[in-house]
Design brief:
This protein folds into two domains: about 5-85, Winged helix-like DNA-binding domain superfamily/Winged helix DNA-binding domain (Arc Repressor Mutant, subunit A, Orthogonal Bundle); about 90-310, 3-Layer(aba) Sandwich (D-Maltodextrin-Binding Protein, domain 2). The two termini are about 40 Å apart. The chain is built from twelve helices and eleven strands. Helices cover about 40% and strands about 20% of the residues. It is of the alpha/beta class. Helix 9 (about 200-210) links the parallel strand 7 (about 190-195) and strand 8 (about 220). Helix 2 packs across helix 3 (about 30-45).
Length: about 300
């Protein structure tokens, strides 16, 4: 079954505007031409795609299915055009990265720097997201590569372990806990906390562990930036729990101490993922290959997150 791109484009316009006239205006064509194209599509697929109502249209289940696949077709065409135009412009590669804060803060800048030193004409876009948004972006084709944690369910994508991470507690130097070499969650559960945003995996896992102890977290402030959290700790507005390590601690505010959280659940893997390695662009495969052994990326990827549940 072959589909005409013009007909698919008109169908998407009608589905999005829910009105033949508005769709015709958007596509700069006659209403009769739009109606004819939709009728031809319905004849081609052998079923009704939309119901004509007095004040517009509504999609049938078959219409919703076609809309989903048509959008995928146009998204792939846009990606193809973008990549080919990059080649024409001499960029020779374009990679869209979604990443959680921990990866962006600790490891990703070095990765990008090393990659661009070898492939300086590659165009790389980086967006900071929650873990779930990273996975959703990969599934939707909005991101080419994602960096997220093993706390995030990742069904439907290919992913590999990349780095290790550990939750640590940030306190100011004169805090009663500052002299400790490590802390347990019971040591801090009653402290006033500076929390990350509510949808982050760190927030979810801390709340879950507090409930296990029969406690409720005392979160006085919430901010999305790790650097901002460290600044607030330095001002003695509360302590914070962040996924940082000994390397990252040097990038935080000088007025804080970073103390490891000695809990098994505080350890996690940082993962790198793509929607489909086999369909990835050469630039994406090269980036993945720079992070992992070639045979691991090509043949040993995981496609379901059996690691743990969470969000960022």
């Amino acid at each position: 079954m072959r589909f005409d791109l013009v007909s698919l484009s008109l169908f998407v316009a009608v589905a999005e505007t829910q009105n033949l006239t508005h769709a015709a205006r958007r596509k700069h064509t006659a209403v009769s031409a739009v109606s004819k194209r939709i009728a031809e599509l319905e004849q081609q697929v052998g079923t009704q795609l939309m119901l004509r109502l007095p004040r517009g249209i509504t999609l049938t289940p078959a219409g919703h299915s076609l809309l989903y696949h048509a959008r995928q077709v146009f998204r792939n065409l846009e990606k193809m055009e973008e990549e080919l135009s990059d080649y024409a412009a001499g960029i020779r590669g374009h990679i869209r990265i979604y990443t959680i804060s921990a990866a962006l803060m600790n490891h990703l800048p070095r990765v990008v720097s090393d990659y661009l030193s070898l492939y300086p004409q590659t165009d790389i876009e980086i967006e900071e997201q929650t873990g779930m948004s990273v996975v959703q972006g990969l599934l939707a084709g909005e991101a080419d590569v994602g960096f997220f944690s093993s706390w995030t369910p990742a069904a439907g994508i290919a992913f590999w372990p990349w780095q290790h991470d550990l939750l640590s507690v940030l306190v100011w130097p004169t805090h009663p806990l500052a002299a400790r070499s490590q802390l347990t969650f019971a040591d801090i559960v009653n402290e006033k906390l500076i929390g990350s945003h509510r949808n982050s995996a760190v927030s979810h896992i801390l709340e879950r562990q507090a409930r296990a102890l029969g406690k409720t977290l005392n979160v006085g402030l919430r901010v999305s930036s790790f650097i901002s959290m460290a600044e607030l700790v330095a001002q003695q507005l509360g302590i914070a729990v962040l996924p940082v390590n000994e390397v990252a601690s040097s990038t935080l505010h000088s007025g804080v101490r970073v103390i490891p959280l000695a809990e098994l659940w505080a350890k996690r893997d940082l993962l790198v993922g793509v929607r489909d390695y086999g369909q990835a662009s050469p630039s994406v495969k090269t980036l993945i290959g720079s992070l992992l052994p070639t045979e691991q990326a090509a043949g040993s990827d995981k496609t379901d997150a059996g690691w743990a549940g969470g969000g960022n």
